[in-house]
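Blackboard transcription, Thursday session:
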Amino acid sequence: MRNKRIAFFAALAVLAASLAIAENVKLTFVYWGSPNEDIALKEAFKSFEAANPGITVEPMYIQGDISGTEYAAKLRAMAETDTLPDLGYFRPDQFGEFASAGYMLDLTNLVQRENMGKAYLPQVWLKVNNRIYGAYTAAECQMMFYNKDVLKKAGVPLPPSDYRKGWSWDQFVKYCRMITTDYKGRHPGDAGFDDRQVATYGVSLQLWHAMLTPPLWSGGGGIVSSDGRKFLMDSPESIDVIQKIADLINKEKVMPYTSPSSTSQAGLPAPPVMLANGQLGFYITGQWELLDIAKMNFPMGIGALPIFKKPAQMYISGASVIFKSTKHPKEAWLLYKWMMTPDKTLNLYSSGLWMPTKASWYSDPSDLAKWTDNPVHPPEYRTAVIDSMKIAETIPEARVKNYTQIVNECVNPQLDRVWLGEITAQEALKKAGELVRRQNLLQGTW
Amino acid sequence: MRSSGAARETIIKNGRKRNYLTRYNNFWGWLFITPVVLGLSLWVAFPLGLSLVASFTKWDLITRPVFVGFKNYIDMFVFDPLFWQAVVVTLYYTLVGVSLQIVLAFGAAMLLNTKVRGMNFFRTLFYLPSLVPVIVSSTLWMWLYNPQFGLLNLLLIHLGLEPQKWVYGTATVIPSLILMSIWGVGNIIVIFLAGLQDIPKQLLEAVEIDGGNAFHSFRHVIVPLMTPTILYNVVIGIINGFQTFTQPYIMTNGGPANASLFYVLHLYRQAFMFSKMGYANAMAWFVFIATGVISIIIFKTSKLWVFYQGEDKK
Amino acid sequence: MSKVRTRIRLPRPTIYVLLVLFSLFCLFPFLWLLRSSFMTSREIFTLPPHLLPAAPQWHNYVDIFKVLPFARYFLNTLEIVALNVVGALISNTFIAFAFARIKFRGRSVMYALCIATLMLPQTVTMIPLFVEWKIFHGINTYAPLTVPAFFGNAFYIFLLNQFFKTIPTEYDEAAFVDGANFFQIVTRIVVPLSQPALAVVALFTALASWNDFMGPFLYLNDQNKYTLSLGLKYLISGYSVIGQWQVLMAASVLIVLPVALLFFSMQRYFIEGLTMSGLKG
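(Written on the board underneath:)
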């Protein structure tokens, strides 16, 4: 009797213990991105679950808009309502504020313990007060696409593929003029050129702040100094670069007018489509657009960015963090590490969306082959894009305080009028500088 | 004697009955309106109070609110240049937009009130655009306004006119949004049409008998009789105009150069992008008071121009 | 008797010209929408533009479902619409009945208060309501989008109040004699007699919640909970189909289509409802 009872309780205890082990840990991972990214991430979660029994991942996909302001607003709402998920993507421009406010898990010791510091690109770790609270999710930069047929037809040589040997700006503008034709085949400057009905444009250049940064750096200017103490856009160098870009639209007539302040940029007649249609020669944009452009059926080429004074490149990306409110920091860290290992989400890199954050994936030939040895990445991608990451500086949005406010409230509304041809870059940027100083927005770094 | 006693009895009876009926009615009346009493408290009174209190604080929804007195209001009127930009943009859109909507809708309703073949078809057609969800009309018009491939510039070029930047130009963005609002004016047309159909024929006949022409009947009968309907549409139009958010948010995000930074868009950003809940609530209270003042002005002055038929106003 | 009518007397051709012009203005955007929704991405950006698609691209309408979970959004929207319609019908019927036909103390004050909220811009309560729903743990649920429907709406109360007043009070008295109470009068007499007015309320509610953008935009975080309006928003500005105007146009057509069908099948109620709202009382 007694033995039986003991056996029964023992069995019960074993059962309870096994139940406790089998008890599932559920992690919620929040992210934005294109539907392709969504698919790739969900695959990565599946493989993570298979490798880590007992942990399930609940994807929380918030597409948001391109500019990221809506994603930011939603994450803010979750923080305010104590409903933050366990981990996921975070807008870099809000990182400093939220990390300082104590929303992020301090990863410093974990990164140190696992010797991860050196294995990644030096730009990757996001710090506040010298503690690591997050990392850039990927490495992304600016690049120039072109349609080979359009260039050939216009008698324009293919641009150099070495990022250090890009065309000078004047050369570039000259070629853009050769490409630009109205519906009767006249070029800008020809008698009777009709700039209202242009059949082929020389170039389309994205005009939001990050896309202006490499040209500004190339010309010796910038938006805000990396210590967050100096507004650089009203320097003569910056003014010169901005005016030259605006001239593409209003003076040279080689670029279609676009509205960068629109969330959707929907005023754009979709440059990738125009490029594929043969209505556009060059398209300067984010390297991540390779994903979509590579799928379009046209003779696509990749060239070195035109150079104002010296070659320049930016490092830009979304951030990934673990929220401090998570109940399962250990499991969250496992998933976080998993997502930082490019082998586990290879599709995101080989499809052209991202470049990896792991240092060896740029230097080790076998690692390099994993993501670039495919038809999506043409041979010149290596010299024009990957190699340019050696000189890439990080966009200061995650470090400089009030960066978004400086850009969105002081600079962009002024620049809108420059792109419209209503005022000069000089007038606009002086005004922007005044606004920045009057509101005392230069508060250093986080 | 007997009769008076009986009378008293009936009075008492009736009194009781009335008392009972009153209680009965009070019970059922208040029972039935309980939801709206709760609704008014939960969705109107409490939020209004909360908003008023919050407007005197600095509050990010995370940390405890801090009382700052009138700071938010001072910031609003003195230090935030975008506040006044938002006020100007919203007033421009509302005042010009509502005037044009009323005039055109009135004209359209007059047209639809004529007796010509196919009128039902035209009525349906005029009304159709106002059914379209604002998100769809914004999308659609953004496409119509596309500087290169949009229908409107295509038309202008065909007519030998200069193509426009529409919602992508600083000077043209508000007129473009007004044009789009006129497209959706069908609601107002239907209301005007109903009003026109209610005008007593005898009055128009009287004008005719007195030797008046069509203009006279328009000026002296139709317009005066329609003034209450006009008043209604003006007030509703202004309230709706002040609340414009989706169109600029979707189409321009307030740009270019803040030329379409509507009040609610500015308020939305303060609250949900910068977590300045105190400031946003001060902005909300300002628009509340402004709407109230404008409505009072309109109703007070309406006595000068709104014609109420002698019969009953209800 | 001269043939006097309540109308302006312009020459007939002028009337037609004006009517046709305004009709074109109303109609052309729709035609442009349809046209664009059937084009290829190449065709839509051709200069000079083609008036009609060379071959209609039906697959644009299939692509929407690949780009975003539109079927899911459709069901979500239907759920919200249904709850709103039920809520509006139940609450407003009883409330309006009380205001129209029960003489209780405080009736006119409460009615005035209620109608006054018609003048309250929603902008004012937008933020405090968000805070309130945060307190109720309603963020990222359908509660903020559906629950208020059960608490009456000034506009519908006004509409139904006008209608209920036209029902003769003798019906109530007769029912009282039979021992009915107010609840039974509402369900047995008023509701059956008020079907046109209730149809108007149902229609307007359905339309309003089908078209609502701001509510879902503020309160829903999780993409799986999105409505059609929000879905379309992310077709415009999301990462999925930047510049794929043909897909965007096709999605727009799909969102408008149910509304248009509803309108054509119940046109009479629409016009009636709008007419009633136009200060007839």
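Lecturer's comment: Chain A has two domains: 2-136+318-353, 142-315+394-438.
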